[in-house]
Design goal:
188 residues, mainly alpha, Four Helix Bundle (Hemerythrin (Met), subunit A), two-stranded antiparallel sheet, 6 helices, 2 strands
Amino acid sequence: MFFNLPTLLTWARIVAIPLIVGVYSVPLSTPTANLVATVLFVVFALTDWADGWLARRLNQTSSFGAFLDPVADKFLVCASLLILVELDRVSSLVALVIIGREIAISALREWMAQIGALKSVAVHMLGKAKTMTQMIAIPFLLYDGTVLEVVDTRIWGRGLIYIATVLTIWSMVYYLQKALPEIRAKTR
């Protein structure tokens, strides 16, 4: 279904991107822009959980929704990483590794689907851990301050984004290893 509540929540993640980027283009103080961008990211990132839950609960799962959901996640993460590179809060190498992996694994999954071997690169716990770590690191880095005079989000965000980078590489190697037997069999 193209337009049902779960799919609309997925579309909301895509629509959120210009809003998050735009926060840094309007005349707001840096702390205010950071707070607004963080809140927007968290709210829209939570739609990832909500759309899946609602789709199953309302029996509104669809192949279009299954396609759009990871695309929306990747757009949101990649756009946020580019903002963080621009703000000098994430290194371009970290962003390149994470964005490059997303492109490579998406292409791998598409190819595996074409050769009828998509199950060999089904979502694994490593991929989920990578995504969860990214989704926690990014708002910490967007906020770029101290919460309750205790939690320095810069330190936590940097640590988490480096962990996410390691998980990114690890999960990419895992998926490539899972696909390799199928690739060898189909390219002979």
